[in-house]
Amino acid sequence: MGEPGTKEPLSLEELEAAGGIRTGRKHVLSILAENKPGVLSRIAGLFARRGFNIDTLTVGPTDDPAISRFTLTVDGALHPIDQVTKQLHKLVNVLKIRDLEPDETLARDLALFKVAADGAARGEVMQIVDIFRAKIVDVTKRSVVVEVTGTKEKIDAFEQMIRPFGLIEMARTGEIAIARGRGET
Amino acid sequence: MRAVDALIECLKAEGVEVVFGLPGGANLPTYDAFYDGGIKHVLVRHEQGGGHAAEGYAKATGKVGVALGTSGPGATNLVTAITDAMMDSVPTVFLTGQVRTELLGTDGFQEADTIGITMPIVKHSFMIQHPLELPRTLHEAFHIARSGRPGPVVVDIPQDLSRADIQYEPVGDLHLPGYQPTTEGNQKQIRLAAKALANARRPVIYAGGGVVNANAAPELTELVTADRFPCTCTLMGLGAFPAGRDQWLGMLGMHGTRAANYAMDEADLICAVGARFDDRITGKLSEFAPRAKFIHIDVDPAEISKNVPAHIPIVGDAKNILPRLVAEYRALETDAARLEEWWGRIEQWRRRYPLRYDDTPDAEIKPQRMVQALYEATGGDCILTSDVGQHQMWAAQYFDFDRPRRWINSGGLGTMGFGLPAAMGAQVGCPDELVCCLAGDGSVQMNIQELATCTEYGIPIKVFVMNNGYLGMVRQWQELFWDKRYSHVDMGRWPDFVKIAEAYGATGIRLDDKHTLVDGMKEALATEGPVIIDVRVTREENCYPMIPAGQPARNMVG
């Protein structure tokens, strides 16, 4: 039996208030897990089950082929993140989790933009590409494909600049992150 | 040998005495190995029954319960039992057959994505990818199921792999680098907890099913009696502290005693042991125990501060932590008189609000009376399982459990149909004990087919059906909160439980007179083999006291 309720209908506002909309800083979780089938599903499923929305997720190999690194960004207040980290630790295949502090973290995103750039526009696009230290990796008569790497903010800024020319398509990896070395800089 | 023969060897090495299962196409090889493998197998009538039987066995004995099912529907029929075992932390291993590897993902006959379906409801799961993995995987499954916070582990075995010829060598080492449950509590934290207990003026010890799982009931009693600490248990913890003791406040929570709930409400220190501050305990979370600081002892770090922020968290096994806490406490100078005022307050609640009901002047049986009669007839000396609903709450209130593993029920998931098969499993695990099931007329029908299993194997459980012809708990809520609009809760007059019992080869008895109730029950208990006792009780009786859901404890009604 769940809540008893009453015959009175619940207003949508009440429902939303009860849901406790969460806000807080962005968290970058770096998770090392065994490279086995179903591990991604276990991790993603855990987030879904606890009502968390994953903003970005990247998965890749580490120097040890038996271990994968998951980099996950989530929006959340500190307490629920703490709960999710604890729950993640309970997954048998998860080896290590770090909630990376923004100040101590290098995070990079990679994006590909297909931009309409014919005739006169092409020069301007190329200038912006230069400013952002991006690269043109494909050219046709009507469009170019630009590769940009950098922080999320840099890529957001590039997108804003390039959009007026006609953004045909874009793809982003989501952030990967690593903690800065300690005491070496 | 075949991988399935190695499986039998592994089960033996894990100390498995019995499995509950039902064969099908995909686990034919496994069943061939069970033909003369030397492990007892109980053929159930429905996989869900097998799953709950494995849980009942595990809860009664403390060992890992094992259930088997085939692929597809066999596995999906196990889903409720697996979820139940997850919610109540029951050490269980579920072995499911799977279609041949070449058919995987092709929607083959009786194919279901068992690993995918069970992903959110298992402690862990394994799909066998190579026959050579099978032995190690099984040992890992048992290790995970029983260690740390126990829970269900699913092992899905494709049919072709289970027939493969492999060299079996006993496995000594496990490879689980990501799984290292913390068992030893931190000494500094334990010392802090002891100091907090010594300084508390209104302490309560609140124990849950984790104490039972950790086999730490004697250690809990040591702690409670190290001073005059008041003690309450959750539904899952009943029996962890003897109900006959003076320091026992009764169960807490939605249908707990006022003494227990009011004590939590006014406490200045709550020491939670193996309990998880479930919503049935806290009521309205923001108003739960507003004056209290919390010590939280739990083997699962994720439970610490999940619902209620802990001031002194201690992660580890209660069996390890409690004796050290007692030792630290005894080393402190404490003033026993500091608790006198608190006990005065508690005694007041006890006197003013005992558990009570209005008995009838005639032969009619009140459901609460039925539970008391069962206690009298058994002398309280039995393992009691229950289903889910009013009867479960009345049993928790009126049947005094003095030892752990004597009260077996579905708490977290609230699974109707749990009681009868769980009793069957408990009886198989404890053949010399009296095992009774207290069921509702609604619940008992959800797995009544296992009566055939009981008769077939001579498993002599006594099933007491509290028959009010209603889905009683839902009816109660409709009465109290939905203006008595009884929507689809009247179960009518059928079935005739006496005839059902007879059809299954069991004995059926009907009791409907309060005056001969205890004698009738004694007669039923003296009857050989499984018995169904259909007890006709007052149709519309409400279970009180109660905290209306979402309200604080001090708003208890009834």
Through-space gap between termini of chain B: 64 Å
Side by side, the strands of the main sheet of chain B go 2-1-3-4-6-5
| CATH third-tier fold name of the largest domain in chain B | Rossmann fold
- Number of contiguous helices of chain B: 21
Radius of gyration of chain A: 21 Å
Estimated structural class of chain B:
alpha/beta
Task: List key phrases describing it.
heterodimer; A: 185 residues; alpha+beta; Alpha-Beta Plaits; 4-stranded antiparallel sheet; 9 strands; 30% helix; B: 558 residues; alpha/beta; Rossmann fold; 3 domains; 6-stranded parallel sheet
List the helices and strands and how they pair.
The complex is a heterodimer of chains A (185) and B (558).
Chain A: H1 12-19, E1 26-34, H2 39-49, E2 54-61, E3 67-75, H3 78-90, E4 94-100, E5 105-116, H4 120-131, E6 135-139, E7 143-150, H5 152-162, E8 167-172, E9 176-179
Chain B: H1 3-13, E1 18-21, H2 28-35, E2 40-43, H3 47-61, E3 65-69, H4 73-87, E4 92-98, H5 114-118, E5 124-127, H6 134-146, E6 152-158, H7 159-162, H8 187-199, E7 203-207, H9 209-213, H10 217-225, E8 231-233, E9 248-251, H11 258-266, E10 269-273, H12 279-282, E11 293-298, E12 312-315, H13 318-330, H14 340-352, H15 367-378, E13 383-386, H16 390-398, E14 407-408, H17 419-429, E15 435-440, H18 450-457, E16 462-467, H19 472-481, H20 497-503, E17 507-511, H21 517-526, E18 531-536
Parallel strand pairs in B: 1-2, 1-3, 3-4, 4-6, 5-6, 7-8, 7-10, 8-9, 10-11, 11-12, 13-14, 13-15, 15-16, 16-18, 17-18
Characterise this structure.
With 185 residues, chain A is α+β, with helices and mostly antiparallel strands. Chain A folds into two domains: 20-100, Alpha-Beta Plaits (2-Layer Sandwich), CATH 3.30.70; 106-179, Alpha-Beta Plaits (2-Layer Sandwich), CATH 3.30.70.1150. Chain A has helices at residues 12-19, 39-49, 78-90, 120-131, 152-162; strands spanning 26-34, 54-61, 67-75, 94-100, 105-116, 135-139, 143-150, 167-172, 176-179. In chain A, strands 5, 6, 7, 8 and 9 form a five-stranded antiparallel beta sheet that branches. Chain A has a four-stranded antiparallel beta sheet with strand order 2-3-1-4, with helices on one face. Chain A starts with 11 loop residues before the first helix and ends in a 6-residue tail after the last strand. With 558 residues, chain B is α/β, with parallel strands linked by helices. Chain B has three domains: 3-162, Rossmann fold (3-Layer(aba) Sandwich), CATH 3.40.50.970; 187-352, Rossmann fold (3-Layer(aba) Sandwich), CATH 3.40.50.1220; 367-536, Thiamin diphosphate (ThDP)-binding fold, Pyr/PP domains (Rossmann fold, 3-Layer(aba) Sandwich), CATH 3.40.50.970. Chain B contains 21 helices and 18 strands. Chain B has a six-stranded parallel beta sheet with strand order 2-1-3-4-6-5, with helices on both faces. Chain B has a six-stranded parallel beta sheet with strand order 9-8-7-10-11-12, with helices on both faces. A six-stranded parallel beta sheet of chain B has the order 14-13-15-16-18-17, with helices on both faces. The longest helix of chain B has 15 residues, at 47-61. Chain B is globular. Chain B starts with a helix and ends in a 22-residue tail after the last strand. At the A-B interface, helix 2 and helix 3 of A face strand 5 and helix 19 of B.
